[in-house]
Amino acid sequence: MLTELYVHGYSLVQLILLLPFLYLPIGLLAFIITLCVKKLTIGRFKACVRPLWHPGIWVDDIVIRVYETLAVPLFLESLLGTPFLNFFFRILGAKIGKRVFMDTTDIDEHDLICVGDDVALNEAACLQTHLFEDRVMKLSHLTVMDRCVVGSNAIVLYDSAMESGSQLGDLSLLMKGETLPKDTEWEGSPAQWIASF
Predict the structure, then answer these.
(1) How far apart are CA 131 and CA 126, in angstroms?
(2) At residue 143, what are phi and psi to the nearest 5 degrees?
(3) HSE-CB for 142 with a 13 A CA cutoff
(4) Contact 169, 154 (CB under 8 A)
(5) Distance of alpha carbon 53 from alpha carbon 48, whole angstroms
């Protein structure tokens, strides 16, 4: 589209000035399509256990793929680190508190996520609400309470919780079903205690 405008006589400066006005509608459309696909097929993600051949898994996967191929690259990635990203995650069903720094889009089943106030989810942190185990897909909730920090490229698995003020280091893994106690620091894969505050 920009190339076509350039060929028709628009200067490079004019194209740069037009870019936000062209990009925003395309991004919003991608987000709206994703939201419609989710509402029409799943409605809300719910905690469940399903065998691999269950049709519900295919429907879940369709919603996740549309999110990852449309909404994320065309719109949500441009909002990383801004409060606007949280607004759109809330529309998708995530419970996100106030003053949350979000530098990741690696959240798939938004309805199963609960993030408190003053939380930092750093670059490429993953809140993973599903796993395949022995050809069985398991979906469940996860909670990150107030004032928590999830490091860059860290993964928080389902059925786990981070209590207020806990920290998970970079490249660390919080295993499913585990809880990080209040005001503690953890690191490693699987996460191990480093310090208490």
Answers:
(1) 13
(2) -130, 130
(3) 26
(4) yes
(5) 14
Token reading at 45: 């993600």
Nearest to 174 by CA among 109, 112, 119, 128: 128
Q: What is the pLDDT of residues 30-88, one digit of tens each?
A: 999 999 999 999 999 999 999 988 998 999 999 999 999 999 999 999 999 999 999 99
Residues 6 or more apart whose Cβ sits within 8 Å of residue 8: none
Q: What is the DSSP letter of 179?
A: E
Decide: 99 and 81 in contact? Cβ < 8 Å: no
Residue carrying structure tokens 């076509």:
4
Q: Enumerate domains of the chain plus CATH numbers.
A: 2-196 (2.160.10.10)
Give kind and range of the element (H or E) at residue 26: helix 12-41
pTM above 0.90, yes or no: no
